[in-house]
């Protein structure tokens, strides 16, 4: 499925709000979107001041919407993603290149990024940002494709500054190209199939894997459609709304930021990597896409991370029922694992396995299946009543975490876990109070 068909389907389901008034792309658009954040509706801005194209926001901010994209219930999404990852590992489906792709209905070899609808989001952001584009690159040594998401700030008609987190595959590609004083060619794809968005955030793939195969698995084995680019040797997504072609320049850094990040705090301005844009291609009258760094990121990263953790912890420890990366943990920095340990010590093993499955986290809480992991009160009650900190807390100092977490020293911090599973012989003491379930409709109540 492509982006516009997804939006059309949500329209039919009554899950799209259209803002028909003209809105300023600087702060006003994001301010309106913030009022709808988390609701079971996305927002399409039909008239953006000074821009030709509409833009959609909110595709990932509600898990019920995400479930509907893949025809499952919200709580089934991580399992679907996990199954797709397993299918990809067992039998990957390679992408195909198509001729006359929709993304090249219009071609501009004298690119002007200011002609695209790219909003300035948070009040202190350094400029207009692509916040959810799919970046495709090729390993300079092996030619294997990488698909990922990075923030990109517009700094000129044909220039972008971008962030590459430590440990990301794209950064490895770039550093090896830069060591040879060579640029790294990329495409930046906006308005894409949600399955491709999932594969770009999926943590269970290695640097030698073309993770576009995960998207194929999510789409029932249909290969991802790619297009030959006009100016670079890296393909674009054939059905994207817009494809920006460019080169990441070696040995050049320019100011990027600040940017309101997933943590809810501003990432500070610094000299970062530079992209020289060589072409822009697009569909006729493209519907562009943007993302608020908040619940949309917490859900999109959370769902894929849950899939990876569920698979890894189940394999290494066993007894796992479910996993949740809550919004309170920013969908990145912590998770709750629900399990039924069969012997002492399994809760602590689950903590360590979860950290191995998703290294950006710095907190893991493990609970029994009588705890609702989607209820923050229930989880906190388990921490305060079932965790003897002296015995049940795991602390790992000087560990690699996520550099956007301000609790770390730019990516180096302390990981900690709470084993809140009930100890053998303590079952009766930890038996939850229960009451009779009644149907209020059977009673006369005023």
From TrEMBL:
One of its GO terms (molecular function) is carboxy-lyase activity. GO terms for cellular component: cytoplasm. Residues 302-420 form the 3-octaprenyl-4-hydroxybenzoate carboxy-lyase-like C-terminal domain. SUPFAM superfamilies: FMN-binding split barrel, UbiD C-terminal domain-like. Signal peptide: none annotated. Residues 7-74 form the 3-octaprenyl-4-hydroxybenzoate carboxy-lyase-like N-terminal domain. It holds the Pfam family UbiD_C. Residues 99-295 form the 3-octaprenyl-4-hydroxybenzoate carboxy-lyase-like Rift-related domain. The lineage of its organism: Bacteria, Bacillati, Bacillota, Negativicutes, Acidaminococcales. It comes from the Bacteria. NCBIfam families: UbiD family decarboxylase. It comes from Succiniclasticum ruminis DSM 9236. This is 2,5-furandicarboxylate decarboxylase 1.
